[in-house]
């Protein structure tokens, strides 16, 4: 039973390899270089009588116009001890499509006035919104943080307009602006 299964598997693999080989590009060159076959029904002048009384096929005459190349033989049996293997086509993997809109939070940065952290909303390969999750507060920091938020945040802010972290510094809020840009840069690096 096992031998029969192996024989069937070997035959199937051989057939598959033959089909692949015959169907592959460049096989026409091989077919063109094959020797030409003898005529199927040679005329009596092209054939010498057989010298062998055992009934072996007559040999073609060397004096006629027939080609002298030997007749190709066909073999359906596979030589003993050989193994035919076929290589499977490589698998292609595709990444699962990401949500078209996603939120990416940048790293937080501490400056002398407080902690700054920015989040961006990305749709496809564009930033569609920026939001400061944390800005310095208390005293004058509230005013300067408000100026930073007004300049950079939202769907119409400078982040969305420029699509990068090369923002203009808000006058009077240099440290907060620089921390905002650093957090924004880390969010962009994560998103793209």
General description of the model:
The chain is α+β, with helices and mostly antiparallel strands. It is 33% helix and 14% strand. The protein is built from five helices and four strands; from the N terminus they run ααββββααα. Strands 1, 2, 3 and 4 form a four-stranded antiparallel sheet that branches. 15% of the residues are buried. Residues 26-34 and 46-51 have low confidence and may be disordered.
Which helices and strands appear, and what pairs or packs with what?
Elements: H1 2-23, H2 27-32, E1 101-105, E2 109-111, E3 114-123, E4 126-134, H3 140-152, H4 158-162, H5 174-191
Antiparallel strand pairs: 1-3, 2-3, 3-4
Sum up the structure in keywords:
single chain; 192 residues; alpha+beta; four-stranded antiparallel sheet; 5 helices; 14% strand
Give the N-terminus to C-terminus distance in angstroms. 58 Å
Shape: rod-shaped
Per DSSP, the total helix count is 5
SSE string: HHEEEEHHH
Helix/strand-derived category reads: alpha+beta
Which sheet architecture does the biggest sheet show?
4 strands, antiparallel
Total count of strands = 4
Radius of gyration in whole Å, from Cα?
Answer: 40 Å
Strand proportion, as a percent range, falls in 5-15%
Give the uncertain stretches in residue-range form: 26-34, 46-51
Assembly status: single chain
* Percent helix: 25-40%
Average of per-residue pLDDT values: 75
């Amino acid at each position: 039973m096992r031998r029969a299964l192996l024989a069937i598997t070997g035959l199937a693999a051989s057939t598959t390899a033959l089909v692949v080989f015959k169907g592959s590009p460049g096989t026409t060159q091989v077919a063109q270089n094959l020797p030409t076959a003898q005529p199927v029904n040679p005329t009596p002048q092209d054939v010498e009588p057989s010298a062998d009384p055992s009934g072996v096929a007559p040999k073609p005459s060397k004096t006629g116009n027939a080609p002298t190349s030997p007749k190709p033989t066909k073999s359906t049996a596979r030589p003993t001890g050989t193994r035919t293997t076929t290589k499977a086509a490589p698998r292609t993997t595709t990444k699962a499509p990401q949500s078209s809109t996603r939120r990416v939070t940048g790293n937080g940065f501490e400056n002398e006035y407080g902690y700054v952290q920015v989040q961006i909303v990305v749709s496809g390969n564009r930033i569609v919104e920026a939001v400061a999750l944390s800005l310095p507060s208390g005293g004058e920091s509230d005013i300067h943080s408000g100026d930073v938020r007004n300049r950079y945040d939202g769907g119409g802010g400078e982040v969305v307009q420029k699509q990068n972290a090369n923002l203009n510094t808000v006058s009077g809020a240099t440290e907060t602006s620089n921390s905002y840009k650093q957090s924004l840069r880390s969010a962009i690096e994560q998103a793209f």
